């Protein structure tokens, strides 16, 4: 009987030992598998260092965030990306950059062309105005090319190329894209190491920038294999395609839509940089995008519309004593709007009966930016000059 008990105990102990060893191997395998799944870069686009194990946790934290708490939002971002990603990849490759940079707008804007941050960065690549203009994008009253998926990608490619030339490391280049090259340059000089991951344990980077590259790696990891992280049946949009036509500017967008025989919203979606009811007044001609296959019918219809019927505006007829400031108060439009539509020369010597163009009431929608400027009190420079001359006279009398 004792022998039987000893045999049973021996078998139980041996089986437990085997089970724990199997478990250990399985756990080890899962960790190795996880490391393989996480995108660490390629030979010419290295993101994680060779000793990446110590940084995997930072990436996993964001993978969990995107695939759990923000899963619904991230699904929308992945879905939206399908419309633009192919065109953007083409531009990046043409510029000699890694095509995987195309996933950067996932964490910048969720591929929302109209995205605007609290720091006033705009568009899919989230350019602030000064950087946008430095890389050739036009930002004015008529248009904001930061919202253009093609033009903004060209600018982003040039900027990222310059950042990589500056730091020679993609993780640092991406950090600089987030925080600005000046801040990263100072941080590198203070630490004496040209290594983004070494900077994470210092006080020289803001929290957002410390999370930026791990967040990007998490986003690209999910985007490359969404099913592995529970993202199934992602809705795919039709890939962005279009024809381009050169038209005299300005021309109303609804006129363009009628000529292309499509809805005006289709024209707005293809040309998200346009902020107003028409193409810009400050250029003689404009390249507009219309749906693919509509070029011939557009040109045929466009030729049949008289030039004077292509652009809409309302009129204000000046009266005696009118100035640009008085007209702004009477019409409710800022001086910026009046100057944009009429130039500045016309207001230097206003005469009664002068026709001043103002936006068409039925087509013009004020943006948040417009409302901000219109809340500011209109300053009358002439009044200031008159008041100063009165003060001078009073001083002379006292003397």
How is the secondary structure organized here?
Elements: H1 2-37, E1 41-42, E2 45-46, H2 53-69, H3 71-94, H4 104-108, H5 129-134, H6 149-167, H7 170-179, H8 181-191, H9 196-199, H10 207-224, E3 243-248, H11 253-260, H12 264-270, E4 285-290, H13 295-303, E5 314-317, H14 324-331, H15 335-342, E6 355-358, H16 368-375, H17 381-398
Antiparallel strand pairs: 1-2, 3-4, 5-6
Helix pairs in contact: 2-3, 2-10, 3-6, 6-7, 7-8, 7-10, 11-12, 11-13
Task: Please explain how this structure is put together.
Residues 1-20 form the signal peptide. Residues 369-399 are annotated as: Disordered. InterPro entries: LysM, LysM_dom_sf, Lysozyme-like_dom_sf, Transglycosylase_SLT_dom_1. Keywords: Signal. This protein has 399 residues and is mainly α. The chain has three domains: 45-229, Lysozyme, CATH 1.10.530.10; 243-309, no CATH class; 314-386, LysM domain (Membrane-bound Lytic Murein Transglycosylase D, Chain A, Roll), CATH 3.10.350. The protein has 17 helices and six strands. The protein has helices at 2-37, 53-69, 71-94, 104-108, 129-134, 149-167, 170-179, 181-191, 196-199, 207-224, 253-260, 264-270, 295-303, 324-331, 335-342, 368-375, 381-398; strands at residues 41-42, 45-46, 243-248, 285-290, 314-317, 355-358. The strands form three sheets. Strands 1-2 form a two-stranded antiparallel sheet. It has a two-stranded antiparallel sheet with strand order 3-4. Strands 5-6 form a two-stranded antiparallel ribbon. The radius of gyration is 30 Å and the shape is globular. The relative contact order is 0.08. Residues 1-32 and 377-399 have low confidence and may be disordered.
């Amino acid at each position: 009987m004792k022998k039987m008990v000893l045999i049973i105990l021996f078998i139980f102990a041996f089986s437990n030992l085997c089970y724990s060893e199997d478990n250990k191997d399985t756990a080890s395998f899962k960790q190795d598998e996880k490391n393989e799944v996480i995108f660490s870069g390629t030979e010419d686009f290295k993101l994680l260092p060779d000793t990446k194990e110590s940084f995997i946790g930072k990436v996993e934290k964001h993978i969990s965030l995107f695939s759990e708490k923000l899963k619904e939002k991230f699904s929308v971002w992945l879905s939206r990306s399908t419309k633009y990603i192919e065109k953007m990849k083409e531009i990046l490759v043409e510029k000699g950059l890694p095509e995987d940079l195309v996933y950067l707008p996932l964490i910048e804007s969720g591929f929302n062309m109209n995205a605007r941050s609290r720091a006033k960065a705009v568009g899919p690549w989230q350019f602030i105005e000064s950087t946008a203009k430095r890389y050739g994008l036009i930002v004015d009253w008529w248009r904001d090319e930061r919202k253009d998926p093609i033009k903004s990608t060209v600018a982003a490619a040039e900027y990222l190329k310059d950042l990589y030339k500056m730091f020679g490391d993609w993780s640092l280049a991406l950090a600089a894209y987030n925080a600005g090259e000046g801040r990263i340059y100072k941080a590198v000089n203070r630490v004496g190491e040209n290594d983004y991951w070494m900077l994470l344990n210092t006080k020289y980077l803001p929290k957002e920038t410390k999370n930026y590259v791990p967040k990007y790696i998490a986003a690209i990891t999910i985007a490359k294999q969404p099913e592995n992280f529970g993202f199934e049946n992602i809705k795919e949009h039709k890939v962005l395609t279009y024809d381009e036509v050169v038209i005299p500017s300005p021309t109303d967008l609804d006129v363009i839509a009628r000529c292309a025989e499509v809805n005006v919203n289709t024209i707005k979606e293809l040309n998200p940089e346009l902020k107003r009811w028409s193409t810009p007044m400050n250029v003689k001609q404009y390249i507009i995008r219309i749906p693919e296959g509509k070029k011939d019918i557009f040109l045929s219809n466009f030729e049949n519309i008289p030039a004077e019927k292509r652009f809409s505006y309302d009129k204000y007829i000046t009266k005696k004593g009118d100035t640009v400031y008085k007209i702004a108060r009477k019409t409710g439009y800022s001086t910026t709007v009046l100057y944009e539509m009429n130039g500045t020369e016309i207001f230097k010597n206003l005469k009664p009966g002068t026709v001043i163009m103002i936006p068409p009431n039925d087509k013009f929608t004020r943006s948040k930016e417009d409302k901000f400027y219109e809340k500011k009190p209109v300053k009358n420079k002439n009044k200031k000059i008159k008041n100063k001359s009165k003060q001078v006279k009073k001083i002379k009398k006292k003397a």
